[in-house]
Amino acid sequence: MKTLKGKTALITGGTSKLGREIVIALAKEGVNVIIHYKNAEKSATNLCRMIRGFGVNAYKIKADFEKRNEREKFIEKALKIDGKFSILINNASIYKSPEKRNYDEFLKNLIINTWTPYFLCMEFRERIENGEIINILDIRIKRMNLLSPDFFYLMSKHLLKLITQRLSIEFAPNIRVNGIAPGRIIPSVKSEKLIKKLTSKIIVCLKNEAMNGKIIIVN
Questions:
Q1: Cα gap 194→183, rounded to integer Å
Q2: Percentage of the chain exceeding pLDDT 90
Q3: 112-140: per-residue pLDDT in tens?
Q4: What digits encode the pLDDT tens for the residues 156-188?
Q5: What are the CA-CA distances from residue 178 to residues 106, 134, 217 (Å)?
Q6: Which of 68-72, 87-91, 191-195, 212-216 has the lowest mean pLDDT?
Q7: Which of 11, 89, 88 shows the shortest CA–CA distance to 48?
Q8: Secondary structure (3-state) at 133
C-alpha cells in the first residue's frame, strides 16, 4: 500500500459531522486538506486551525452547489489553492425525511446529491492526470425501500452509485473511483464507531492502488 503523506485532498461538505471526521482522518495520515463549506465559515476556520496542528496544510473553500456558476468554478478554485491536489471526496449532500415530494425537492436532491458529484468528477478528470475519487453513498442503496419517506434522497444516492461504477471504468487506469456506503449516522455511541470504521475504510481505499469501482458497505 502506498503512503498518503504529502498529498492534498478536497472534501466537499467538510464541516458536516462526517466530513469533519474524514478531514481529521486524512490529516492524521499526513494529507493536506481543502475543506469545502456552504455557510459554516466559522466551523471551517476553526477546523483548519485544528488540522494545522497535525503538521499539514489546511484551507477552506466556499461554494453553494445549488448555484451553477459556483459548481462550475469549484475545481478551478481548488486548484488555485493547491495545484497538486489529487484526491476528491464527494461527501456533501442534503437529506430530509419525510420529504414533501414536490418538484423543487426532487430537483434539489438530484442537483446536490447526484449532479454535483458527477460534475466535479468530470472536472477533476479534465484537469488532473492521476488521482483518486471517493463518493459517499448510503447503505440503503443495497436494498431500497420504495415506500421510504426519503425516497428522493435514496434515488439520488442510487444514481450516484451507478455513476461511481461507470466512471471507475471510464477514468481507469489513471483515476480510481470508489464508493463508500455507510449506515445512518445519528448522534450515538454506535454512530461514533460507524464513523471511525468509515474513515478507516477511506484510508484503506486511498492506499490500495488495486481498488477501483468498489462499493464498500460500512455498518
A1: 8
A2: 85
A3: 999 999 999 999 999 999 999 999 999 99
A4: 999 999 999 999 999 999 999 999 999 877 555
A5: 25, 5, 11
A6: 191-195
A7: 11
A8: strand
| pTM assigned to the model | 0.95
Give residue 84's region: left, alpha or beta (phi > 0; psi -120 to 50): alpha
User: At residue 80, does pLDDT exceed 80?
Assistant: yes
Grid cell at residue 156 = 439520488
Q: How is residue 23 written as a grid cell?
A: 478531514
- Spatial strand order in the sheet of 87-90: 58-62, 32-37, 8-11, 87-90, 131-136, 175-182, 215-218
The C-alpha atoms of residue 32 and residue 48 are separated, in whole angstroms, by: 10
Radius of gyration of the chain (CA): 16
Q: Is 199 helix (H, G, I), strand (E, B) or coil?
A: helix
* Distance of alpha carbon 19 from alpha carbon 113, whole angstroms: 15
Instruction: Take residue 116 and report the three cell numbers written for it.
Output: 454535483
Sort residue 143 into left (φ over 0), alpha (ψ -120 to 50) or beta. beta
